[in-house]
Amino acid sequence: MSLLEIIRTRRSIRKYTAQKIARGDLDVILEAGLLAPSACNSQPWRFVAFDDDDAKRAFADAVFTGIYAPAKFAAEAPVLVALVSNRGNVPVWLGNAIKGAQFWVMDAGIAGQNMVLQAWSMGIGSCWIGWFDHKKAAKHLNAGFGEKVEILFAFGYPAEAPEARPRKDKAEMFYYNKYK
């Protein structure tokens, strides 16, 4: 399957089979995140993979409570991955301040996209989870100063096949040589 076909067919999966993901396959998915480009090659991410049922359940019980309970479906995935970011090295920090940007967040997004696309190329579904208790996640993981659990990913073999969501027409979205 071509990269564009992987991108076209990837869906957010919220229902998974009970089939475990082999540790070697999980390593490949995490490596895809590691290989993402980042500002000044700062690599401002760490990946915490929960593939042990008890460890995953303890983490999920901590982060999917109260108003975050609707995302508890992610606990049923065979693997949960927390992407922990840090604000990067001094050149990146200065660039962030000058540009008013958070490059480490963009870098985390690139790493996450690499992982979900790699997973899909292997027949493994995923879902980005942003609705969780970030403070409890950081506490559970003993995140340090300047570190934040940016996003969670559920990974597993799909037990559903969601339809493609509509996209805007290319004519409305593509511009060449000038904007509007």
Structure description:
By secondary structure, this protein is α+β, with helices and mostly antiparallel strands. It has a single domain (3-160), classed as NADH Oxidase. The chain contains 7 helices and 4 strands; from the N terminus they run ααβαβααβαβα. A 4-stranded antiparallel β-sheet has the order 1-2-4-3, with helices on both faces. Helix 2 (23-34) packs antiparallel against helix 5. The longest helix has 19 residues, at 103-121. The protein is globular and about 55 Å long. The two termini are 35 Å apart.
Taking pLDDT < 50 over at least 5 consecutive residues as the criterion, the unreliable ranges are none
**Could you tell me the number of beta strands?**
4
Question: What would you call the structural class?
Answer: alpha+beta
Distance between the termini: 35 Å
The number of helices is 7
**Superfamily at the CATH H level?**
NADH Oxidase
Tell me the domain tally.
1
Strand line-up across the major sheet? 1-2-4-3
Q: What is the radius of gyration computed over CA atoms, rounded to a whole number of angstroms?
A: 17 Å
Rounded mean pLDDT is 93
* CATH fold node name: NADH Oxidase
Strand content: 15-25%
Biggest sheet layout = 4 strands, antiparallel
